[in-house]
Amino acid sequence: METTLLFFSQINMCESKEKTFFKLIHGSGKEETSKEAKIRAKEKRNRLSLLVQKPEFHEDTCSSRSGHLAKDTRVSPEEAVKWGESFDKLLSHRDGLEAFTRFLKTEFSEENIEFWIACEDFKKSKGPQQIHLKAKAIYEKFIKTDAPKEVNLDFHTKEVITKSITQPTLHSFDAAQSRVYQLMEQDSYTRFLKSDIYLDLIEGRPQRPTNLRRRSRSFTCNEFQDVQSDVAIWL
Prior knowledge:
RGS; Regulator of G-protein Signalling 4, domain 2; 235 residues; GTPase activator activity; Regulator of G protein signaling 18; mainly alpha; disordered N terminus; 10 helices; signal transduction inhibitor; 69% helix; disordered C terminus
């Protein structure tokens, strides 16, 4: 009996030692894993620190933020002064066009310049299909009654366009574009030359942020999959 009890006692002791052994092994594994994780995290931080210190990293991450500033400051006062010589010189310069568009947005009349730009793009159309699709897009957005960006045209001009829209030509919008051009030149352009947007440019001052009540949706013919438009290069 005593021999039997002694035998089971020895077995229990062995099992206890084995459990202790496995616990130690398992614990040391966790500890080792924890140490390795810390080492890897430290190496990762070091690599990130080296990356941040590289000049090209800052150039890439800041390019989007600095792009807007560069856009505002790239116009020299001498160049901006030339825009005051004529409306045509203003529109023929990309930066002048952008500045004038920004001004019209403050007056909520940007549909005029957007229509003019759309007409300029329309004249570059190639092939009957492209002419038809672009003409339809312009008519739907700017000409027809209650259009999203309806421009102010006299009844006769609008009627002529409406009747010819089924068989448009590259000159379908010439009369309307000319009338809108005259409206901007005689009205909006004179106010633009007195605006803070223009005066800041000719004085070389940083551009001030403009507060708009609504956002303009610039016209593009890319709403139609089969149409290739160059409007985006203007805006």
